[in-house]
Amino acid sequence: MDRLIINGGRKLTGTVEISGAKNAALPIMAASILAEGDHLLHNVPRLRDIMTMGRLLANLGAGFHLDENGAILNCSRISNYEAPYDLVSTMRASVLILGPLVARLGRAKVSLPGGCAIGARPINLHLMGLKKMGASIKLEAGYVLARAKRLRGAAIYFDIPTVTGTENIMMAAVLAEGRTVIENAAKEPEVLDLANALISMGAKIKGAGDSTIEIDGVTSLRPLDYSIIPDRIETGTFMTIAGITAGDITIKKCRPDHLDALIDKLRAAGIRFRNVKDGIRVIGPERLNAANTKTMPYPGFPTDMQAQFMAMMCVAQGTSVISEKIFENRFMHVAELRRMGADITIEGGTATVRGIERLKGAPLMATDLRASASLIVAALAAEGRTTISRIYHLDRGYEKIEDKLGRLGADIRREKE
Ligand code: EPU
């Protein structure tokens, strides 16, 4: 296993390029199940989760190749319809093949994901949607078995706007008979990117990016030739790094318009922004101000940025209140930040962070993807040396992070534990 060693306290300056969005690439890879032929995907980040989705598709009988030019997928011959436990347990997003498999093959067997480090994360809404579309759903020995000769369009209302649930139903509906209407759909940019990818395959989808999505089923689709949007969470993470290190970072190949809620809060914390060609320049203040925030579904403040924002607030002037409203257990980073001297108390889903002058380097353990990112944010500004173990979590979602940070002037290296 690898660990990261960071000597903090440097101002990071320079230019960084953002990779393609993991959470858009994963459903779009799953969408390749829906059509025969060679699918070409551009701007695919080279990450562990992407390789897991590739293995999952290869396990179904698909061809998968990923290099610096992108991914090639071919699902013409699918001989298997199962997502086994050993893959689903390493990546919950494996559940994204459920909708496309039922749509294309009329059957799917997908391991139930179980809880994870950030919450229980059930998939009841995905299953409710498929049932409404006429699928028979059985739960057997930890697996979901779904079957339908041909899915039928249906009116589906989500109690909670679920991102992968909306994506699964959208992919199921594009080949269904008739019209599907999803109400209270998730509005995240990754949902819109999947819809745009499906439309480029010939799907009929209206309203994606809004809370009502209408899909008229078609009988066949063509292969993809599509470029994935930039990763808004990687972008946001570099913004917090500029903020906490009093740095000056120009972030290129990104979409700041996907981060309005975050940028608003970062401005309140004293960070300045300048629009530049193909990106944004982010300038951190000598000392951050405290700012309160609450995570919400898009366009609200993203839960995937909560941990990194909290790391910043640990050294802000004043007290901040941060509420987590999406996942019930997403404060795993708090215990680690406290080991660096942070003054944080938690009550229910709310953390109160009393800013201190300076964090101190310490040996730390990464617990999930975004928690790991927050420890890097903290370590870059801390006094002295921090080691972060179990960074395989980080490799699920951040492409070459130590190279990107090194080029901005960070003292960071990876070594074997
Ligand atoms: N929920 C249910 N029932 C369901 C589905 C969801 O109760 O059937 C609940 C969840 O437990 C949660 C809320 O609805 O409380 C929202 O969860 P959602 O389904 O939107 O999350 P997700 O689709 O499992 C995606 C991202 C996450 C990101 C969340 C929220 C992917 C592959 N994953 O998860 O990304 O945090 O949306 O924006 O798109 C990450 O990248 O680190 C990550 C965790």
Describe this structure in words.
The chain has 417 residues and is an alpha/beta fold. Helices cover 31% and strands 26% of the residues. The chain has helices at residues 22-31, 48-60, 85-88, 98-105, 124-132, 163-173, 189-200, 232-244, 260-268, 306-313, 332-339, 369-381, 392-395, 401-407, and strands at 2-7, 13-17, 38-42, 63-67, 70-74, 82-83, 107-111, 136-140, 143-147, 155-157, 179-183, 204-206, 212-216, 225-227, 248-252, 272-276, 279-283, 293-294, 319-323, 343-347, 350-354, 363-365, 385-389, 411-416. A four-stranded mixed sheet has the order 22-23-1-24, covered by helices on one side. A four-stranded mixed sheet has the order 2-15-17-16. The structure holds uridine-diphosphate-2(N-acetylglucosaminyl) butyric acid. The site of uridine-diphosphate-2(N-acetylglucosaminyl) butyric acid has 24 residues, from helix 1, helix 5, helix 6 and helix 12. Uridine-diphosphate-2(N-acetylglucosaminyl) butyric acid binds at residues 23, 26, 93, 119, 121-126, 160, 162-165, 186, 190, 303-304, 326-327, 369-370, 397.
